[in-house]
Write a structure and sequence with these properties.
With 158 residues, the protein is mostly helical. The protein contains seven helices and four strands.
């Protein structure tokens, strides 16, 4: 075996690693997680705020695809009818406020982690989080480079 045969795979592996996103090296474009993305985009005339979505859901106007994902992630025996109960107070601390009902052990609502992963990571090119944001986990989950611990920031809508 010559040196080229030995070094080529190592070089290709190193090059591939350098192409991966490196948390902590660049400014975080989404430092506040959910509320960094779910904003009012006046330039595009698009309102992605969760308060706007919640107002629609409370009025019984739930997108069929979202309702299907909510039903798929709901605990056994929970029948979702397509209307979210009033939860305006949860908007003061997103997503922590949502966890009052949507925690991982919830028996009355879809657990937050299951529902949000279905919403953000399925649907291929039709899903804007997959197509525009490449399903990048670090937009929502933040790595503490000192400890290796992951967290999700929470706060009020912007």
């Amino acid at each position: 075996m010559n040196v080229r045969t030995l070094l080529t795979p190592a070089f290709l592996s190193l090059a591939a690693l350098l192409l991966l996103p490196m948390p902590g090296l660049a400014a975080d474009a989404f430092p506040t997680g959910c509320v960094s993305c779910h904003t009012l985009d006046k330039a595009k005339g698009a309102d992605h705020r969760l308060s706007t979505a919640l107002a629609q859901w409370t009025a019984g106007k739930v997108d069929a695809g979202l309702l299907a994902k909510a039903r798929a992630s709901a605990p056994a025996g929970v029948a979702l009818k397509g209307r979210h109960p009033s939860a305006g107070d949860s908007l003061e601390d997103i997503p922590n406020g949502c966890l009052d009902c949507h925690d991982s052990g919830s028996r009355k609502a879809p657990p937050f982690n299951q529902l949000l992963h279905l919403v953000h990571l399925t649907g291929g090119a039709e899903n804007v989080f997959v197509s525009a944001f490449k399903g990048d986990c670090s937009h929502c989950h933040k790595l503490d480079a000192r400890t290796g611990a992951w967290s999700m920031p929470s706060g009020p809508e912007q």
